């Protein structure tokens, strides 16, 4: 019975790290060590008429010196900066492609981070290697 519980908890945790988490609290720590994660791009829908939003970026695993930078429409926008458990806020335009690009893999397990869109109360966990990035296309919902 204990083995079933451990497997179930492990599956739930893995699924949680692999999916969007609508109510993931910014700054939450989900793991004690970095584990390479399959990088994913996302389209994020915002209410019509919304022109700007904030993103919160943090390290959801080990604070091991991972660094990222934020690009907007392919241009450097914020950073590079070391990600920690305390989120870094960046104001970005809706209608843009926001990219979180890995700069330094501090611990050798990949750059693992989470991003939160406070206006939507929606978060994503993601992973990236130095020199590559994950894109978040911010669009208005179709009418």
Strand content: 35-45%
User: Major sheet: size, sense and barrel closure?
Assistant: 5 strands, antiparallel
Order of helices and strands: HEEEEEEEEEE
**Shape assignment:** globular
Give the total of domains: 1
Which segments are poorly predicted (pLDDT under 50) over 5 or more consecutive residues?
A: 1-19
- The DSSP helix count reads 1
Structural class from helices and strands?
mainly beta
End-to-end Cα distance, whole Å, is 50 Å
Q: How many DSSP E strands? A: 10
State the helical fraction: 10-25%
Q: For the residues shown, what is the average pLDDT? A: 85
Q: What is Rg?
A: 15 Å
Q: If strands are numbered along the chain, what order do they take across the biggest sheet?
A: 1-9-8-3-6
Topology (elements, then pairings):
Elements: H1 2-18, E1 20-21, E2 42-46, E3 52-58, E4 67-72, E5 75-82, E6 88-93, E7 97-104, E8 111-117, E9 122-128, E10 133-140
Can you summarize this structure?
By secondary structure, this protein is mostly beta strands.
Write up this protein:
The protein has 143 residues and is mainly beta. The chain has one domain. Helix content is 12%, strand content 45%. The strands form 2 sheets. Strands 1-9-8-3-6 form a 5-stranded antiparallel sheet. A 5-stranded mixed sheet has the order 2-10-7-4-5, with no helix packed on it. The longest helix has 17 residues. The protein is globular, with a radius of gyration of 15 Å. The N terminus is likely disordered.
């Amino acid at each position: 019975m204990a083995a079933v519980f451990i497997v179930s908890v492990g599956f739930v945790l893995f699924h949680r790290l692999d999916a969007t988490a609508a109510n993931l609290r910014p700054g939450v720590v989900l793991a004690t060590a970095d584990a390479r994660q399959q990088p994913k791009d996302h389209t994020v829908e915002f209410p019509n008429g919304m022109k700007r939003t904030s993103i919160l970026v943090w390290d959801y695993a080990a604070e091991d010196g991972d660094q990222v930078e934020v690009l907007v429409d392919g241009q450097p926008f914020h950073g590079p900066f070391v990600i920690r458990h305390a989120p870094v806020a960046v104001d970005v335009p809706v209608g843009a492609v926001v990219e979180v690009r890995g700069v330094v893999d501090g611990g050798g397990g990949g750059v693992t981070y989470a991003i939160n869109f406070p206006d939507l109360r929606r978060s994503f966990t993601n992973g990236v290697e130095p020199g590559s990035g994950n894109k978040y296309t911010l669009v208005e919902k179709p009418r």
